[in-house]
Amino acid sequence: MLNLFARGHVNRLTDPVGRRLVALGVSPDTMTVLGTVGAVVCSLVFLPGGGLVIGSVLVTLFVLTDLIDGAMARARGHGTPFGAVLDSTCDRMVDGAVFGALAWWALTGGNEPVAAAAALVALVGGQIVSYVKARAESVGLTAEGGLVERAERLLLGLLGAFLAGVGVPYALSVALVVLAVGTVVTLGQRILAVRRSAREVPRA
């Protein structure tokens, strides 16, 4: 949903930054790796121990570099196959670190088992959603769209963590349960999209 409604506005902000970094000789792959390392480290250092406010803020800042590397690729006029694989791989690493860390905090210091279970559902479901799209595209089918994609997953998870960190009761549990349900719905939407795409492919 965010991709649909916000992409144009975001690109207008990130494209000048991307052009400047390319002019300085920075590669999109470098930005991808730096953002991933920063997000993973901040997730694992701050979130499990209860540093939800500082952790969610820092992880969000590093995640935003994912927008910058896309702008840098546009500034160069092209991406690369390696860059696409690297970007997707790093995305999965960040998702695992964020939701794994939130689940750990919810089971230990947070004492919120519902939030922990929802975080794991969101994590596993998000990985499968991404896999369905990649597997479909590998056989010439499409699986685009869905209610909750990666941007929404991170937004809801980190917002819930921030609100919990400033003392809003059950904020993380509510955010993660909504996210888990939305992720399951998205998985169903992706499977149906693949089925429709397969029906449109002429039989050999």
Automatic annotation (TrEMBL):
This is Phosphatidylinositol phosphate synthase. Its cofactor is Mg(2+). It is an enzyme of class 2 (transferase). It catalyses: 1,2-di-(9Z-octadecenoyl)-sn-glycero-3-cytidine-5'-diphosphate + 1D-myo-inositol 3-phosphate = 1,2-di-(9Z-octadecenoyl)-sn-glycero-3-phospho-(1D-myo-inositol-3-phosphate) + CMP + H(+); a CDP-1,2-diacyl-sn-glycerol + 1D-myo-inositol 3-phosphate = a 1,2-diacyl-sn-glycero-3-phospho-(1D-myo-inositol-3-phosphate) + CMP + H(+). It comes from the Bacteria. Catalyzes the conjugation of the 1'-hydroxyl group of D-myo-inositol-3-phosphate (also named L-myo-inositol-1-phosphate) with a lipid tail of cytidine diphosphate diacylglycerol (CDP-DAG), forming phosphatidylinositol phosphate (PIP) and CMP. PIP is a precursor of phosphatidylinositol (PI) which is an essential lipid required for cell wall formation. It is a multi-pass membrane protein. Keywords: Cell membrane, Lipid biosynthesis, Lipid metabolism, Magnesium, Membrane, Metal-binding, Phospholipid biosynthesis, Phospholipid metabolism, Transferase, Transmembrane, Transmembrane helix. Contains a di-nuclear catalytic Mg(2+) center. It comes from Pseudonocardia parietis. GO terms for molecular function: CDP-diacylglycerol-glycerol-3-phosphate 3-phosphatidyltransferase activity. Homodimer. The lineage of its organism: Bacteria, Bacillati, Actinomycetota, Actinomycetes, Pseudonocardiales.
